[in-house]
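Q: Got a minute? One more chain.
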Amino acid sequence: MTIVRPDVSVHARVRAASSALGPSEGRVAAVIMERPDDVVDWSAAELASAAGTSTATVIRACQSLGFRGFQHLRLELARSAPLVPRDQKDAAGGSTFDDAVDALRLAQESVDPGRIEAAIDALRRARRVVLVGNGFSGPPLQDLAMRLSGLGRPVEAPIDALAQQFAVHSLTSDDMCLALSYSGANVQTLRACTAASERGATVALITSYTRSPLGRAADIVIATGPVGSAHDLDPYLARLGHSVVLHALHGALARDAGHADVAEMRHVVADALSED
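A: Always. Here it is, folded:
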């Protein structure tokens, strides 16, 4: 027997937006996620009954989830293809991979390619680049800093919050501050970005939430979509989208790099390897 699941983009949209819904609308989203094949054939009143709420709440929930209304939701669900259920032994790992695929699809739909291009142009022009991220956002930026250094780019990624402040306070209008923040509300990152902006530097932000304190402070905002809760201790699914964006920035600059520069860095790597 096959079951109908929503197209992965619909599934991702409902899952991502459901965390911001109130209790009644949240029950509607839960039913949509759990019984998409039934929802395709239901009326708004039947979905309301299954969720223990009113028809008006169903319509509001659909709109909150990003659809024009209930009929639009049904149409998007109907476009999905039937999937064969996974074997029980694959359920745990399969669910994790499904979640990751959904998160990446959401990021793909959410990210404005024009803003990635704007960030790439700013990185190309920048005399000096300071990367700012705290908590779980720190390690991805350390990785980017090493990769940009491998291209011969002038980049700094201070780990300490005070060191970040020192770095951005010496930026000028020829420089750039690139920040990473899942919530867009990290206080230390906000202080650094504000200081960079006050000194005329271009501020670019990679985040999950467009509307945020950091989003208001940045010149360029690349938003990957709100996967999970804004208060998750470890927003690992969101980091997948962030990592792809960082890779896109690095990839564009790597294509600009001269062969001689890359070859020299390869020698550096080779020299670091033990011959034993």
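A: The longest helix spans residues 236-256.
Q: Perfect, thanks.
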